[in-house]
Each structure stands twice: as C-alpha cells, then as structure tokens.
UniProtKB/TrEMBL annotation:
InterPro entries: Na/Glc_symporter_sf, Na/solute_symporter, Sodium:Solute_Symporter
Region listing for Disordered, in residue ranges: 544-564
PANTHER family, A to Z: SODIUM/PROLINE SYMPORTER-RELATED (PTHR48086), SODIUM_PROLINE SYMPORTER (PTHR48086:SF3)
Family named by the database record: Belongs to the sodium:solute symporter (SSF) (TC 2.A.21) family.
Compartments where located: Cell membrane
Main location: membrane
Membrane topology qualifier: Multi-pass membrane protein
Name of this chain's protein: Sodium:solute symporter family protein
GO molecular function: symporter activity
GO BP, sorted A to Z: sodium ion transport
Single GO cellular component term: plasma membrane
Annotated transmembrane regions: 6-26, 47-70, 82-99, 126-151, 157-179, 191-214, 234-251, 271-295, 307-329, 366-386, 392-415, 422-440, 446-470, 477-497, 503-523
Length: 564
C-alpha cells in the first residue's frame, strides 16, 4: 500500500479556523441580544424551500452515515452501499406523507414529544422524548468518533484531540443562535460535501486501478461479497435498515425539527429533493469501501471507522486530502449541530416548557438558557462516550431498531382518534422489553421459543410494509399490503428469521407494539379524541417576531382544554 498523505499541523489548524470561523460569523450575524425561544427551536416555522432542502440533505449526509456506508461496502461488497443508501433515502421520502398530517394537526409545535403530550399526556411524551435524548446522544457520539478517526489518520493530532477540537467548534457556533445557526450553516456545508464527493470518488477509483480493479481484485471477495443480490447483505444490512427507515422518519427529532420549521406547503418538495441528494451521495461515498475491498486494503488497527480517511490518505494528493478533510468536517458538523439543537429543543419544550414550568408559566429567556446549557452538557457527554470508539454502523442500526417500538403508536395517534395514553405507553414499554433481549441474544432461540419469535417477526414484516403503504396510499391499500406480505413471508420467515438478531429484534418490536396498541385501544371505552385540540394545546412559547421578520401565527390557547 502507498504511503499515507497527511496534512501538516498548521494546515489542519488553518482549515479548522476557516471552517468553524465562517460558521461562527454566520451564527453571530443572526443571533439576537434578546433571543426568541421559538426561533431558537424551529426558526419560526417559515423556512423556504432552498434552505430547508439543503438543511435536510446536509443533516442526513453526515459523517457517520458516510463511514457506515463505506463499512457496509467493505463488509458486504457492491450491494452493501446500495442497501444502506437506498433505504436511507426511502426514510426521507416517507417523512412527507406523515409529515403533512403532523403539521396539519400541530402547525406550531416544536417536537413530536410535545404533540404526544397534547394528544395523550405526560407518560407518552416522556417516552418519546427519552428515546430521542438517547438517539441524539448516540448520533452525536458517532459523529465525534468519525471526526476523531479523520484527525488521527490525516494529521499529526490524536483521536482524542480531534474529538475535542470538533466538538468545541460545533458547540461554539451552534450555541448562540440554536436551530437557525444549524440550518443556515447547513447550506454552506452541503455545497462543500456535494462538490467534494463529485471530485473525490472518481479520483480514488482511478488511482486505485480504475475498471481493471474489478478483475485484478476479484479474488479478494467471497462469493457473497461478489453477488449483487447477496443474502448476507440483505439480512444483515438491508432488511434491518428497511425496518429502521420508518423509525428514523417518525422518531427522530432532528427530522421532526426540520418538519416543523419548513413552510407547510413546501414539505413534499423539500423532502423529495433531499431524498435524491442523500441517496446519490451516500451510495457514492460507500463505494470507497467497495474499492478498498477489491484493492485488498485492511483497515488500520482493524477498525472499519478508519476506512474512509485511510482511502483518502492513500490515493489523494495533499490538495485533495485538504478538500476531503473539509467535506468530512462539513458532514459531521451538519449533523452534530442538528443533534445539539434537537436535544436542546426536547429539554426546552418537553422538560422545562411542559413539565417544569408549564406552558402557561414558561419564561422564554430561561428556556433559551436551558437550551444552551443542554448543548454544553450534551457535547461534553458525546466527547466522553466517543472515547469508546464503537462501531458506527452498529450504533445506527441499534438506534433505528430501538425507535421501531414507537412507530405504530405514534402514527396511529395522529390518525386514529381512539388510541389512548395507556395503549401508547404500555405498547411501547412492552416492545422495548422484548426488543432488548432479542437484539442482544440474551434468549436461547431454540424450539418453540424460536418459532414464537419468528411468528412475531413475520407479523412485524406486515406492519412495516403496511405502514409504508398507508403513508402513500391510505388504509385500504395498507391492509392489503400488510396482510398479504405477512402471509407471503410466513413460509420462508418462520424457522429462519431468529438467526438474524438485529433484524428479528426490530421486527419483534414493531409487532409487539402494534398488537398491544390495537388490542388496548379497542378494549378502551374512552371518548374519541378531537384532533383540533392539539393545535390549541401546542404553539409558541415566545410570541414575538421570528428571525425571518415574519410575525408568528400562534394559535390562541384554550387553557381549559389543557387542564382537561
């Protein structure tokens, strides 16, 4: 293997100062002496198409997803990045049909958990908020791990120094203006990322051998890695990610925040655009892992998180290494700042705004202070956990599967007026209680136990596909797809699926939460819920002019309905 091209210390410091300095200047120019709490969380809900599409694209083309896609390519061959990027893109696409319904019933909300409080009550809200705190911390940690690996391989600085420098840089510019800083810097960051990908992937491919590499390096692949229709890739990567896409689309606060921020009539246009941008970029960057596999390259230290920076340092010139460095810094910053703003919004709106002070007595200035303190604490925690250097792909699949327990109860709560707080809470907790031992293989999958979990997993297949169909085509089509796919999959899945713990755990979580939510809802005699109450129970905490200069359209709050 060729010698690695590293950047000198002064060059790295210069790139850091240029990138984070420009981000800080943007943040300071839009920050206010008297910060608006709603603008700090969602930008006032009036973002236009360009900045919203760029923000969604940049947020989801994060360093961790780049690294995970390359890991998938290296592990599973050509089909790995396609499974990763294609289903990730589907996740973004699935947001808009459900997103339009969510915005219709809660046009001025800040978090999905806040809407669950208005729909059900405190326990449902805290379940959703708690899962997002965990998910955003894992996401933040993943990005810091990716950044530390980048610094360690491409510069004279260590992994730990890289984690601290990147964490401090992201925190510095995000702290002042919150969500507005995140979305406005995203536009700059997505330009860096897309431009760099167009240049870097072809350069690495031809430097590694070009088209002839697929012949000379074919002996480095197993038969499964050589197959475009690899069953290993599908059951270990593709299928778990298909199950996870709905969970990310519904449960992820970084996505929900952009859903509540974009102008309501631009939701479809924004998320369809981001779908294509994400899919093309992530599949492309994942090919670096495929190239490494064909070239017979072993990840440094046996850590697949090192693959992308290792490929760049091996095949790129120093100038292109600098461009690559900025691309990765931009991708991880765009998502790390989104994680910080997501966490701050949850603590501001769901913990302080609803459960500590109460919406009626919440002080907007204290809310902003709480949000900033949350960012500092979250970044400190992320830096600490990044020291473990966990596998990024494993982290992402775990979070997606974990959120699977929430998907049906959350979606049903926006469409079905009979779903109760008890049905929501019990179904989610029970699904999590089943998911964790299955996912971590604490249960011996033999005999009747294995068959029982396979039956649940098969029902989970029907739930996942049925919910996807419901988003685009409605209830009747969803029932046909869900029942039909369950029946079709049963002969193949029962007696087989328990061998794949990641996939089985996710599907079981879907099945258990759906069955319990439906049964408990049908058993309840509670009055049907009036969805118009959600609009009254959610809204602005700080009814002042937002950063676009547009007066907010906060709904009048009927305090009697909140007390009810």
């Amino acid at each position: 293997m060729e010698a690695l091209h590293q950047l000198s210390g002064p060059v790295v410091l210069g790139l850091f100062l240029a990138f984070f300095g420009a981000s800080l200047i943007i943040s300071l120019r839009i920050s206010k002496k008297r910060e608006n709490a709603d603008g700090y969380m969602t930008g006032g809900g009036k973002l236009g198409f360009g900045i919203s599409a760029a923000s969604m694209t940049a947020t989801w083309i994060w360093a961790a997803s780049m690294y995970a896609s390359a890991t998938s390519g290296y592990t599973y061959g050509l089909s790995g990045p396609i499974h990763y990027g294609l289903w990730g893109a589907l996740m973004i696409l699935l947001i808009y049909p459900f997103g339009r319904r969510i915005r219709k019933v809660a046009p001025r909300a800040h978090t999905i958990a806040e809407v669950m409080f208005a729909r059900h009550g405190r326990s449902s809200q805290l379940l959703l908020a708690g899962s997002n705190v965990l998910g955003s911390l894992i996401s933040l940690t993943s990005n810091l791990i990716a950044g530390g690996a980048l610094i360690d391989l491409l510069s004279p600085f260590t992994f730990g120094q890289g984690v601290i420098a990147i964490g401090a840089g992201v925190l510095l510019y995000t702290l002042w203006a919150g969500f507005r800083a995140s979305v406005l810097t995203d536009f700059m960051q997505v330009l860096f990322m897309l431009g760099a990908v167009v240049i870097i992937i072809p350069v690495v491919f031809f430097a590694a051998g070009g088209p002839s590499l697929f012949e000379t390096g074919a002996h480095n692949l197993t038969p499964q890695q050589s197959s475009f229709f690899s069953s290993d890739a599908f059951f270990n990567q593709g299928a778990p990610y298909i199950a996870a896409v709905l969970a990310y689309a519904i449960g992820n606060q970084t996505i929900a925040q952009r859903l509540f921020a974009v102008r309501e009539d631009l939701i479809k246009k924004t998320f369809v655009t981001a779908t294509f941008g994400y899919g093309a970029t992530i599949i492309g960057i994942g090919m670096l892992g495929v190239i490494a596999l064909y070239a017979g390259i072993d990840p440094m230290g046996g850590d697949t998180n090192n693959l992308i920076p290792q490929m760049a340092a091996t095949y790129l010139t120093p100038a292109l290494v600098a461009l690559f460095f900025v691309m990765i810094i931009g991708s991880l910053s765009s998502t790390a700042d989104a994680d910080l703003t997501a966490l701050s919004s949850i603590v501001m709106a769901d913990i302080y705004g609803q459960n500590v002070a109460g919406k009626r007595n919440a002080n907007p200035r204290i809310m902003v202070l709480v949000g900033r303190i949350t960012m500092i604490v979250a970044m400190t925690a992320g830096m600490y956990f990044a020291g473990s250097q966990l596998n990024i792909l494993d982290l992402l699949v775990f979070v997606g599967a974990l959120w699977g327990a929430l998907v049906f109860p959350v979606i049903a709560s926006f469409y079905w007026n009979r779903v109760t707080n008890v049905a929501f809470s019990v179904s989610v907790v029970a699904a999590l209680a089943v998911f964790i031992p299955v996912r971590f293989e604490w249960i011996d999958m033999v005999g009747g136990v294995a068959i029982g979990f396979d039956v649940l997993s098969t029902l989970g297949i029907g739930v996942v596909l049925g919910l996807m169909a419901f988003g685009f085509f409605g209830l009747r089509t969803a029932l046909v797809v869900g029942i039909g796919s369950t029946i079709a999959a049963a002969p193949f899945a029962i007696g087989f699926l328990h061998q794949y713990a990641v996939l089985s755990g996710s599907l079981v979580a879907y099945a258990v939460s759906t069955i319990l939510c439906v049964v408990l809802t049908l058993a309840s005699k509670k009055e049907r819920f009036d969805f118009s109450l959600i609009k009254l129970r959610t809204g602005d905490f700080d009814p002042e002019e937002d950063f676009t200069g547009t007066p907010p359209q906060s709904a009048e709050i009927d305090m009697s309905s909140i007390r009810k």
